[in-house]
Amino acid sequence: MAQIRIHRDGTVEALCGTQDIGGGARTAVLILASRAFEWLPLSKIVVRIGDSDFGASGASAGSSTTGGVTQEFRKASEAVKAKFFGEIAPRLKAGAGDLEIREGGRVGVKGQERSIAWDEACSLLRDTVLGHAPTIVEPEAQWAFVHEDGTVEQATEETHPA
């Protein structure tokens, strides 16, 4: 599961359980997070990966790792942006659907020139905003089986007794 947190100080945390086994997963996640926020400066982004506390994630398997985390972070970034816009929109006298992130992280109203700096927009938050993208394996489960045809089977006591 990929998670993205936007903090009031303007930092963005990108978290997932996948490992970096030398294929550049940490760098890929850093770039994905920057791109999701219209090239937010890399200095604003903190990447935390390889910890099971962050939830299940795609496999760490060479070049396929990047493909696996890309989709998760795309979904997580859309979820967190929706929450972010929803929370700051009233303070900007706009609807959440009217807001956009512009290059470099500025936040503005679509079709209008007015915008505010990323840090200023984040300071409008009441608390950290979290967006996540669940994996196809439910978090409550301890085991799942991926079959050769690519289907995923959730392990349950009924299907796979201990």
Task: Tell me what the structure shows.
The protein is α+β, with helices and mostly antiparallel strands and 162 residues long. The protein has one domain (2-154): 2-Layer Sandwich (Aldehyde Oxidoreductase, domain 4). Helix content is 27%, strand content 21%. It has 3 helices and 9 strands. It has helices at 25-36, 64-88, 118-123, and strands spanning 2-6, 12-16, 45-49, 99-101, 107-109, 115-116, 129-133, 144-146, 152-154. Helix 1 (25-36) runs parallel beside helix 2.
Please give a handful of descriptors for the protein shown:
162 residues; alpha+beta; 4-stranded mixed sheet; 3-stranded antiparallel sheet; 3 helices
List strands and helices in order, with pairings.
Layout: E1 2-6, E2 12-16, H1 25-36, E3 45-49, H2 64-88, E4 99-101, E5 107-109, E6 115-116, H3 118-123, E7 129-133, E8 144-146, E9 152-154
Parallel strand pairs: 2-3
Antiparallel strand pairs: 1-2, 1-7, 4-5, 5-6, 8-9
Helix pairs in contact: 1-2
